[in-house]
Amino acid sequence: GLNGILADEMGLGKTIQAMAFLAHLAE
């Protein structure tokens, strides 16, 4: 349903933010 899609997008956004943060720390 729509709620599942929104939850997936929010989770994906947080995952991307976390990966970008870790990549920044690794530099």
From TrEMBL:
<keyword id="KW-0067">ATP-binding</keyword>
<keyword id="KW-0234">DNA repair</keyword>
<comment type="subunit">
    <text>Component of the INO80 chromatin-remodeling complex.</text>
</comment>
<dbReference type="InterPro" id="IPR050520">
    <property type="entry name" value="INO80/SWR1_helicase"/>
</dbReference>
<comment type="function">
    <text>ATPase component of the INO80 complex which remodels chromatin by shifting nucleosomes and is involved in DNA repair.</text>
</comment>
<dbReference type="GO" id="GO:0031011">
    <property type="term" value="C:Ino80 complex"/>
</dbReference>
<dbReference type="GO" id="GO:0016887">
    <property type="term" value="F:ATP hydrolysis activity"/>
</dbReference>
<keyword id="KW-0547">Nucleotide-binding</keyword>
<dbReference type="InterPro" id="IPR038718">
    <property type="entry name" value="SNF2-like_sf"/>
</dbReference>
<keyword id="KW-0238">DNA-binding</keyword>
<dbReference type="InterPro" id="IPR000330">
    <property type="entry name" value="SNF2_N"/>
</dbReference>
<dbReference type="GO" id="GO:0005524">
    <property type="term" value="F:ATP binding"/>
</dbReference>
<protein>
    <recommendedName>
        <fullName>Chromatin-remodeling ATPase INO80</fullName>
        <ecNumber>3.6.4.-</ecNumber>
    </recommendedName>
</protein>
<keyword id="KW-0378">Hydrolase</keyword>
<keyword id="KW-0227">DNA damage</keyword>
<dbReference type="GO" id="GO:0006281">
    <property type="term" value="P:DNA repair"/>
</dbReference>
<comment type="similarity">
    <text>Belongs to the SNF2/RAD54 helicase family.</text>
</comment>
<dbReference type="GO" id="GO:0042393">
    <property type="term" value="F:histone binding"/>
</dbReference>
<dbReference type="GO" id="GO:0006338">
    <property type="term" value="P:chromatin remodeling"/>
</dbReference>
<feature type="domain" description="SNF2 N-terminal">
    <location>
        <begin position="2"/>
        <end position="26"/>
    </location>
</feature>
<dbReference type="GO" id="GO:0003677">
    <property type="term" value="F:DNA binding"/>
</dbReference>
<dbReference type="Pfam" id="PF00176">
    <property type="entry name" value="SNF2-rel_dom"/>
</dbReference>
<dbReference type="InterPro" id="IPR027417">
    <property type="entry name" value="P-loop_NTPase"/>
</dbReference>
